[in-house]
Amino acid sequence: MPAEIEHFYAVIPAGGVGSRLWPLSRAEAPKFLHDLTGSGVSLLRNTWDRLLPLTGPDRIAVVTGSAHESRVEEELPEIPLANVFIEASQRDSAAAIGLAAAILEQREPGVIIGSFAADHHITRQRAFEFSVQQAVAAARAGYICTIGIAPSEASVGFGYIKKGDEIDVDGAPMAAIVESFVEKPDLETARRYYADRNYLWNAGMFISRADVLLEELAANEPELHAGLLEIARAWDTDRRAEVCDRVWPGLKKIAIDYAVAEPAAAKGRLAVIPGHFDWDDVGDFASLAKLISGGRPDTMSILGQNDKVLVDESTGLVVSQTNRVIAVVGVEGLIVVDTDDALLVTTSEHAQRVKSVVGRLHEDGRDSVL
Question: Please, what sign has the CA dihedral across residues 2, 3, 6, 12?
Fold first, then answer.
């Protein structure tokens, strides 16, 4: 077992709806609360178990919404309640991670924090731990650090990080400067990135001294920074509710990539560790089908009521949450998601478009199925 990392806190942002996984993922039960891998536990619990050897149970914090507080505590009975940070409403990742950084810096000046999404799937635990240990070493040296994933294919579904020159940091032999961030590419560009090997998938993991991250946030988003500090100063007092109610709704909605990571990269203070472990953000049903099947395109993956699903010369994914019999005959790349109050039928090719259906349902006022 690896040693727990001194002065290190893991932060798990557990928010969002996962709208590309509707109707499996809902506002009241987002994807991080589901077992999407057949492991028997939720993605959130898997994330906790992955981080536990590096931190111990008292040094993991979760940032989540009030609607999910009880479920988070049910999934993670070991977590100290003081380490469950409740957002009154969703204000995007800069506010969520910035809040955790500000509270933990208030409690323990000089603390190093690492942000790891609640709904990602990672295997090859020892390689993951080695990457985090290197990232913490880079953070001790004053860098904000991210872990980029060495691509296993030419994917158009992820943003990319372009790795620049290597840097000399004790304990981080693979550390390099981030040259730039790149949005999701088209297939031809993705193939070029895959061949280059200086391009890494952006997995949204950030490791930094909390005060360094907050300093960068102050330089780029001073009003957001000021609001988070005001909340953090009141967090462990009887003034928390009053301050949060007054300040939180006015905080700017912005992703940490834009508020911290990209500006830090432009200043040469963002480092990256290439992560040589298996990673997937389980972003849509096509990626879920691939994950469950182990990457085999010639099979039908089934999640849920296997004995109710009949398959004849078909491929894709069936998610069954009812007692209905589902028969799939002679269809390739089919996606079927059957729940009590909604049925989705699409194909792997169009899996990303499920998000637009959620938008239509919301516009039509049919929020009861969201």
Answer: positive
